[in-house]
Automatic annotation (TrEMBL):
It comes from the Bacteria. It comes from Atlantibacter subterraneus. Keywords: Signal. Residues 1-23 form the signal peptide. This is Lipoprotein.
Amino acid sequence: MKKIVKLLTAIAFAGALAGCANTAPVQQVNATVAGKHTAEQVRTAILKAGVQRKWVMTDAGAGVIKGRLQARDHVAEVRIPYSANSYSIIYDSSLNLKAADGKIHKNYNRWVNNLNQDIQINLSAGANL
């Protein structure tokens, strides 16, 4: 009987650890814009990247864009303040992404990283903005 209890305890512990493996610290992006761009060009690069990655992007005041991504029953929302020299991608809220204590489902970080990469690509393409 003791062996069964130990085995069940070990399985429960392993299951708990496996569940934690799906989360990671929330990634915040703070990027410097290389080259000479206007704030409008940075805005356009962000909006274009959002469309490319299926984010819904909306203006939220001067120099700020809000982004929302829905993948099945998961939702991520970010705030993107920008200027001619820099931009940030800041976690705002989420649904069904296990967000707690500064951690979130790993997919969120992948989505934000992909969005950031596309913004950088759009800025480097510059002439097409």
